[in-house]
Write a structure and sequence with these properties.
270 residues, alpha/beta, Rossmann fold, Cytidine Deaminase, domain 2, 2 domains, six-stranded mixed β-sheet, 8 helices, 13 strands
Length: 270
């Protein structure tokens, strides 16, 4: 953490990620936390970790910028997802409406990238979403669950190539494979849905592989594996999860490792 980073703005979506990041920031010495939460998205318990907070509707960009300006936020982090469907059901304020009107493509990357540009114009730098969470990035090699068998090792290597190509085409960043066959490719529905579909087709012994894009913008888009991923993998009979080392965040790392051991799911950093 830079020595000057004692005040942090947190733009928080859903899930445990924002809570874990807020706790890590406090542990690292952040003295003041200014929280932007979203209605029906952000965990309400996060408010207890903040010094000041506001709850907005998705699309209230002007209010977000005004909140950070009012409280003098110079550095901010965006953590946690916004429900994908909300990006197609926005009720933007005037600031957001003007921003969206300039975009030729409307997806999470273009929208949040434009939001980051607007924050910068207002004097707030958006930091990588892995800030304070560097110790939770996946290592290289086998790091959890049972030692992978030869077929699993081959499938993770194969899945890595396929997932990288899908990411390059901006289709999705996860695939489910088994014995050299692609069972499911993630698209707009997200990793959990693709995992379930692939698991149903493969029945057991399949492998989930999750990667990053070559030009991944880690300010607002970080590949994540968490307890929910492991729970879905176990329920779907997934035998292994391969993820990109150093570029995939392990949310609640100890719980992830415990679930991998209990459910006999090999974890491999590629």
């Amino acid at each position: 953490m830079p020595p000057s980073l004692i005040h942090l703005g947190l733009i928080a979506g859903k899930g445990s990620y924002p809570v874990l990041l807020a706790k890590a920031a406090r542990a690292a010495g952040v003295q003041r936390l200014s929280l932007v939460a979203f209605d029906a998205e952000t965990d309400p318990s996060l408010h207890a970790l903040a010094d000041e907070a506001t709850t907005l509707r998705v699309g209230q960009l002007g209010a977000l910028l005004s909140f950070f300006k009012e409280h003098g936020v110079k550095k901010a982090v965006m953590a946690g997802q916004i429900t994908p469907g909300r990006l197609f059901d926005l009720k933007p304020d005037l600031k957001a409406f003007l921003l969206l009107a300039k975009l030729k493509q409307r997806n999470a990357e273009t929208i949040f990238g434009a939001v980051a540009d607007e924050l910068a114009k207002g004097g707030t730098e958006l930091l990588p979403a892995t800030t304070f969470m560097e110790d939770s990035l996946a290592p290289t090699g086998h790091f959890g669950g049972p030692k992978p068998k030869r077929q699993i090792t081959e499938d993770t290597a194969f899945g890595f190539q396929i997932a990288k190509e899908m990411a390059r085409l901006d289709v999705g960043q996860s695939v489910v494979v088994k014995r050299g066959t692609v069972l499911a490719v993630e698209a707009f529905e997200g990793t959990d849905a693709a995992l379930k579909r692939g698991g149903e087709l493969g029945r057991s012994g399949s492998t989930l592989v999750k990667v990053s894009k070559a030009n991944q913008d880690f300010r607002f888009d970080v590949p994540v594996i968490g307890p929910r991923t492991l729970e879905g993998a176990i329920a779907s009979g997934i035998a292994a999860i391969g993820c990109e080392a150093g570029r995939t965040l392990l949310l609640d790392r100890e719980r992830v490792l415990a679930l991998a051991a209990e459910g006999k799911v090999a974890l491999i950093g590629l």
